[in-house]
Amino acid sequence: MGITIHWTFITHDPATVIRACWAVAEEAEKTGYRCEEFSSEGRALYMRSIIPLHDFKDFKGVLDYLRERYGGFRALDQPLKELPDEPPFAFVVLGYPDEDSFMYAIPWLSLPSYGCYNRTEGIPTEVHGVVVDPPQVDDRYTAESFNLLFYKVGRWFLCSGFCKTQPFTVDEVEHNIRYHKWICSVLRRVAGLSMFWYHRYVHDEGRYYETMDLSILEKSFEVSSTYIWAHGSILQDVADKLGSGLSVDVAGVYSVKKMKRRLRETRIDGEQSTLDEFGGA
Fold it and tell me: pLDDT tens for residues 57-115?
């Protein structure tokens, strides 16, 4: 929940991978963001989903997504157990596990740092790339790190990731707008630096990447923040009425109960509070 940027890059050219990582590191240095090289073992595997076949539009929507995100898919009679050596890597199985459902699967990278890492699942792979630390306010990060990580499948290098940049309080807004704009500019540079991309994809839920319109990004942040805090407030009201003693937190940090109490204590008639505007203070 919250505005997120998604990307996928696929190539068979090692030089393109090196240039992409170098471009990120160079842009991070210009802006003052900390950037580190990343190398690790990993497992390349499939993330599978089974969907009820209620409406053909649902099925078509999945196919359109796989084409857009991964450059295509394989239509199969049975699921693949491991990623093939050549693209397309995503696949779809219609009528599986029964005639009223279908399965689709996307390539996925699992790292030892993940809690669900399994050394026997998928195929072993080498992972190389760069990690950029997000902005900080006081002693807390205001967003997720930007990770451009490539892993090897056959002769191909795959990179698929996302970064949530949603600000949750007023003091995060300026930092996260700057960070979001920076990520979009970096992804534009990466997407255009080589003719050897087999596939490249960027989707910005804040719509800045496509429009370069700051007002659209700001509005997207505002709408998302309003929804998040409204949803959290409803959950907190239910928890209070049930007498559960539970405290609902936004982003795992901000207590809705404390924010609502602060709102009651600081509201001035006729004025909007920072909680109303941005979801925090």
Answer: 889 999 999 999 999 999 999 999 999 999 999 999 999 999 999 999 999 999 998 76
With a CB cutoff of 8 Å and minimum separation 6, the contacts of 176 are 135, 142, 143, 165, 166, 167, 221
- C-alpha distances in Å from residue 32, one per residue of 146, 148, 154, 186, 249: 14, 17, 36, 14, 31
Neighbours of 265 (CB within 10 A): 7
CA–CA distance, 94 with 100 (Å, rounded to integer): 9
The DSSP symbol for 133 reads P
Instruction: Report whether 166 contacts 252 (CB < 8 A).
Output: no
Residues 6+ apart with CB under 8 A from 56: none
Q: For residues 71 and 55, what is the distance between their CA atoms, to the nearest angstrom? A: 24
Per-residue pLDDT reduced to its tens digit, 149-199: 999 999 999 999 999 999 988 889 999 999 999 999 999 999 999 999 999
CA distance 48 to 156: 21
Structure tokens at 109: 């990278």
Q: β-strands 254-255, 197-204: how paired?
A: unpaired
Which among 133, 111, 142 has a CA at the least distance from the CA of 24? 133
4-11 and 197-204 as β-strands: parallel, antiparallel, unpaired? Answer: antiparallel
pTM value?
A: 0.88
DSSP per-residue string spanning 150-210: EEEETTEEEEEEEEE----SHHHHHHHHHHHHHHHHHHHHHHHS-S-EEEEEEEETTSHHH
Residue type at position 165: T
| CA torsion angle 30 34 40 44 (round to 10) | -70
**Domain segments of the chain as ranges:** 4-212, 229-278
